[in-house]
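#random but structural
TW: two for the price of one
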Amino acid sequence: MIFGHGWFPAAVGDFEAAVRAQDADAAERAFAQLTEGFGEATDAELHAAGPRFAALLGEVPPGPRAVVAVMTGACVERGADPLACAPGVFAGALDAFEQASVFCERWAAAGRGELPDHEGEGLEEADFERIGYEPVMAWQALPQFEMACVALLNSPRVRRELPGRDGLRAAVARVAELADEPFKCLAYALAVLDDEPLIALDRATGAGFALRISGIGDNFQLHTLLADALIGRGLVAGEAPSAEAVACCRGRAGMVPTTGSFNLVGADGEWIWNEGNPADIPAVDGVRLVVLDPPPYERSWPAGRFFPGMTGELVYERALAPEEAAALLARVSEFAR
């Protein structure tokens, strides 16, 4: 198909009108045109379309709904206002994960065995009657809603200003428990902290440092940025990561090899695994706290961002007064007993 000037806004309008009129045939035609030529739309057209897609999402039938959510996320990645698009996508995702919980429960109650994949392999026609059309479609839609939500959560404005993250986190966790499927990208994106205080204590010297983190997707990224902030300033002994590794953990595209500088330990005495995320770090008096120990063995990994579209920040604020650091280290020892 050849797409002429202005075809995309016209197709968006046709799709809106058909969905709101519940004209299934017209909606299917407009939807097919949108999906076929989406890549040909201009940035300006996508800026305008994103909020319109998001506002329409609740009225779109279950079949194409998740694809429209992905299209909304793609519009945001091309410059559409993420805060205007997020409410509709988050509401659709919450509904999908809640319906997917129903799917998992009914599937188990029916004795159907191993869950089907999200493409439908393992489903039978009778499952739509046995379990329900909406729960089946929601189960199939989860990967698309995960993709759409992550695209929106790359925006610090969405993470800071949009309500409803806790409800969606709970719904995702419930499906993850029922399905034994972590939905790790969405779970981690929903857990990302912004403008979050962090205390680091160097056990060897007793020194303590106040920092602040934003947009850090996992503890590999946190580890690298911590090492840069503290070893790079000469505040803690060890080998600092390269400038390239640090840049990739902040905002530069790609990944470069790096080697761990610390063993990170929580206030409870448990290791803080690089595979986790900063939201899992235990707090003392409401502030997350990490103890820096020497690495027990060499650990290397590709340094970069867990979410390539999310800018990571770790800001060094100050050194703690010696008595303040000592008091915290004593609290850590008590906590860990």
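TW: number two ↓
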Amino acid sequence: MTESSTEPGAADARLIDRFIERVWSEDGLADRTLEAYRRDLAQLSRWLEPRGHTLATATREDISAYHGSQPVSVRSMARRQSAFRRFYAQMARDEGKREDPTLLMQRPKMPRGLPKALAEREIEALIVAPDTTTALGLRDRAMLELMYSSGLRVSELVDLPLSGLNTRQGVLRVTGKGGKDRLVPVGEEALAHVERYLAEARPGLAQGHGQPPALFLSRRGSAMSRQQFWTLVKGYAMQVGIPGKRVSPHVLRHSFATHLLNHGADLRALQMLLGHSALSTTQIYTLVAKEGLKRLHAQHHPRG
């Protein structure tokens, strides 16, 4: 097959170029996604050509027949359909009354991904990584301890006000999604490190900045951003030998939930700690715990 025969026709190529430029400028999609979209549309164009159609003239029946003749994984199908829906939605907007051939098409059901949790020994190594002889190291250790101890979201951690911590009772008042408040207990180890941060590090970070409301302060005396915190976490993960790809914005929260279930925590109690409005959201962690037990059994049981 010659190179020219693998490329879409000139008219379709222009449509694809225009579409890619638009979604890049309007949605800021990643380069890999744009390349995949371009490839999906070019393949559809080549499939349509011997059937006397182009991307501009394709019908709903054409799109359905193409999907049926080109079996791929569920994930690839979902990405392909996303490319087609975006492409034809843009054409419909540009051309007014043109019918969108992707409307009413059934979307593939994606398998539900399991949250990623670190092993307990990895969490321990990550938490003790900061250099607590420095003010910033004290802050980082306190943040890591608190997030893992209380299962906070990243946004909840960096937005936590000083007034939200009750050291005498060992609880946090956390404002979660939808502006809902909840009380979350703080473990003794985490509380000890937070109190040390408050006594030895925070006054210096706050000096010259009035009375900043945030509990955890940057070197400039202001609240930290989520990006700043996770840059720190990834740095500590690399320092202790945890691959960066295994560290996500919710890894400590996921680990908190998974480890509690592994040690016999009640699902309803975990729902309250995490601030989930629906129990079904919390139940995903039971699958994570079961997968961990399966791996443990396979690794250590003589007949695993």
